[in-house]
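Entry 14. Structure prediction run on the chain below.
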Amino acid sequence: MKTTRTLWRTIGTMAAISTLLMAGGLVYAMNDIMNPKPADFVQQPQQPQPAAETKTTVDIVALGDSLTVGTGDVSGKGYVQNVKDKLAAATKKQVNVIGNYAVNGYTTGQLLNDLQNAKGVPYGIERADIVLLTMGGNDLFAIGRDVMNSQTDELDPVKIRERMPEPQKRLEHILTRLAELNPKATIVYVGVYNPFYDLPEMRPASVHIQEWNDAAFRVANKYPNMVFVPTMDLFQLQFDKYMYTDHFHPNQEGYVRIADRVVQALE
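Output returned:
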């Protein structure tokens, strides 16, 4: 009988212990559900990011008149090819002139017409990294020729200022159109100089040429990707050294001087 009671006590004790263990497990499980702990942080290895594509070439498009053609340079390079070579040396990149659309004698009206076409010149501009432009010399020459007093060989400043706003407005439209066609390209407007500075009767023309350049600078200053490059001072002190025999265009050395200044602006 005693043995039987001992057996039942043992069984009862074990049952009580089992009940306590189950209750404890239930409480632990409920606590884990009601108060979850954050999972241990495991840092994932970072995936290497693809390197940004770096363009190794620079594409140039050139526009304008005989200065961009390079008339007067016996080497045939003009300032455009000199810019190409000097920029390649400075940047250690391949520099390409993908289009030179300049035409001898071109005026603001003719170039503006080209830029308004859907194909051709605009197509090249949209693909350029740099756009080089000379424009205005032929417009100013036509104004000066028409308003000069044939008896005194003097310019009429009043008449010049009366006629300048129209081509200046066209130049503004040209620069604006270039900025619209390619807002990422650097647009370089090469300023106008006085090709007749060595003639005393034509020195007053420098004032009007500077007025033209000032107007161009104001337009260029509106756009963060546009730069004005002055050239007036490049030829004044040693005119014969840097001008071609036609008394209008730079010679080989003169174009090099223009190119040097353009590259300085681009660096």
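Confidence is low (pLDDT under 50) at residues 1-8, 10-52.
Filed with the rest of this week's runs.
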